[in-house]
Amino acid sequence: GVAQSGSPAVVELRIDGVVDPFVADHVEGGIADAADAGAAAVLLTLDTPGGLDSSMRQITQAILNAEIPVIGYVSPQGARAASAGTFILLSTNIAAMAPATNVGAAQPVGLSGAVASEKAVNDAAKYIVSIAEARDRNAEWAESAVRDAESVSAEEALQLDVIDLIAPDVPTLLADVDGTTVEVAGEPVTLDLTGATVTEDSMGFLAGFL
User: Fold this and answer.
1) Which has the closest alpha carbon to 63: 78, 77, 51, 46?
2) What torsion do the CA atoms of 103, 11, 133, 137 make, to the nearest 10 degrees?
């Protein structure tokens, strides 16, 4: 496995662009592979305008049910976790953003780009509230992200208890969350990330590598 060097391994998965079934399969498989390989955590970096509701739900379920801690990170500066990306960030064990990033505007839209039906909006609002409550984040803001297309900066998200921290880069992020205890598969797990090596799992690379 990855951890033979003696330092903890962090597997980085990127959602860079639209959330589609290919991305959903990659993230779901990557989380499972990282857990099997004995990695210390998954680092999920996000810069997305959103995407398909079904793919978003596949990813959030994979994160909520992961057997390994998942750290969400909206980066680099100027990135956003909009629409489906908001649900995904809120579902992570630890949600972080780089400075000058945004999260929100999570109202569902139909394929034509038209705003979805009232039922779809209600379903999405219920779903994002359940995610926020599962992770002890601001459910009221989460609902307004869906119903009112509310969008906030990293600084506002931190004040509103939507995210856990702001970090300028990955080494700072990992140092800041080292020693934090999160719940994984119903059990408390303390992140041990001192001297961690970050390996990027670009579309299925790790599957062959491990």
Assistant:
1) 46
2) -50
Q: Which residues contact 140 (CB under 8 A, 6 or more apart)?
A: none
- pLDDT value at position 7? 86
Contact (Cβ atoms closer than 8 angstroms) between residue 59 and residue 92: no
Q: What gap in Å lies between CA 142 and CA 150, rounded to an integer?
A: 8
Closest CA to 107 of 95, 93, 120: 120
pTM of this prediction?
Answer: 0.92
DSSP-derived letter for residue 110 is -
* Predicted confidence (pLDDT) at residue 2 exceeds the cutoff of 80: no
pLDDT, tens digit (0-9, with 9 covering 90-100), for 24-54: 999 999 999 999 999 999 999 999 999 999 9
Annotated catalytic residues are 83, 119
Asked if 33 and 202 count as a contact pair (C-beta separation under 8 A), the reply is: no
Determine the 3-state secondary structure of 3 from DSSP.
Answer: helix
Range with lowest mean pLDDT among 19-28, 70-79, 102-111, 191-200: 102-111
SS3 string, 162-189, reads: CCCEECCCHHHHHHHHCCCEEEECCEEE
